[in-house]
Amino acid sequence: MASFPGRHSRHLLGLQGMTPDQIEPLLDLAESYALLNRSRKVPRDVLRGRTLINLFFEDSTRTRTSFELAGKRLGADVINMSVAQSSVNKGETLLDTAATLNAMQADLLVVRHSQSGAPALLAQKVEACVVNAGDGTHEHPTQALLDALTIRRHCGGFGGLTVAICGDVAHSRVARSDIHLLTTMGCKVRVVGPPTLVPGGFKSLGVEVFHTMEEGLRGADVVMMLRLQRERMSSGQIPSAREYFRFYGLDQRRLALANKDALVMHPGPMNRGVEIDSLVADSDQSVIQEQVEMGVAVRMAVLDRLTRSRHSA
């Protein structure tokens, strides 16, 4: 089975540079875990005796819980470090934290941080395998992998698919990871949103840029909506939430412009009535809840692969 790319093959820090031959086996393993999860026959000895630390410098109940569940289903000892109550908030540097974690002799470290590159820095300083659970506006690799698995389960593959990623692309690490993965797998990717949130520079990533939903959604096979990340925005980047929905919200009328039975996706958490209408979010075309389910399976696959890589090195 192919290893992750780059010098640090025992870490998953991003998807940029990965090849289809590296991505497909990981999705296959995740698919097997999805089936095992549904049958409740998960092999709990895969990570028995291993320690997984969730180190989240940013809040994310969904992602942290998903990694916690993935680790426990594989038999790992899981520790959630509350950064708000830790020495980090008392002035400890990231490198001091790395030294502390090394002393704990953890096997797996899942890191979410507001600064791009923080997980990569930790990966250089710790013995544990590091998984990037989202860093700044850089990448969120496991989210893109679960998105890809969900798409593959419904569409059978990726070749020839048109995927429209809509909304706050500028501040979205999910969008960047999805773009790297989906273009690599042969999808035609569009990014759609106002010029303040979808700069033309995204064309350099091999995607088409649209500034109206009507143009961007026409003929799409997958419509992926993104949350407005107000915490990362400067003032004036969007009008009111009501005006934003009027021009860029996904409702049934706009969804009808996409191909029949187009998948509706969202990485969560959703702002209903801001980027997506409840009738669409809860429709038969929505696979948003399945994305959550696939998230556990993908993270189980990643933890499995990294642990095997580390102990076979």
UniProtKB/TrEMBL annotation:
Gene Ontology biological-process entries: 'de novo' pyrimidine nucleobase biosynthetic process; 'de novo' UMP biosynthetic process; amino acid metabolic process
Assembly notes: Heterododecamer (2C3:3R2) of six catalytic PyrB chains organized as two trimers (C3), and six regulatory PyrI chains organized as three dimers (R2).
Alphabetized Gene3D superfamilies for the sequence: Aspartate/ornithine carbamoyltransferase
HAMAP family: Asp_carb_tr (MF_00001)
Coiled-coil regions, chain positions: none
EC number assigned by the record: 2.1.3.2
Taxonomic superkingdom: Bacteria
Lineage summary: Bacteria, Pseudomonadati, Pseudomonadota, Alphaproteobacteria, Acetobacterales
Name of the featured protein: Aspartate carbamoyltransferase
Organism: Acetobacter cerevisiae
Annotated positions binding L-aspartate: 90, 173, 227
Biological function: Catalyzes the condensation of carbamoyl phosphate and aspartate to form carbamoyl aspartate and inorganic phosphate, the committed step in the de novo pyrimidine nucleotide biosynthesis pathway.
Transmembrane annotation, as ranges: none
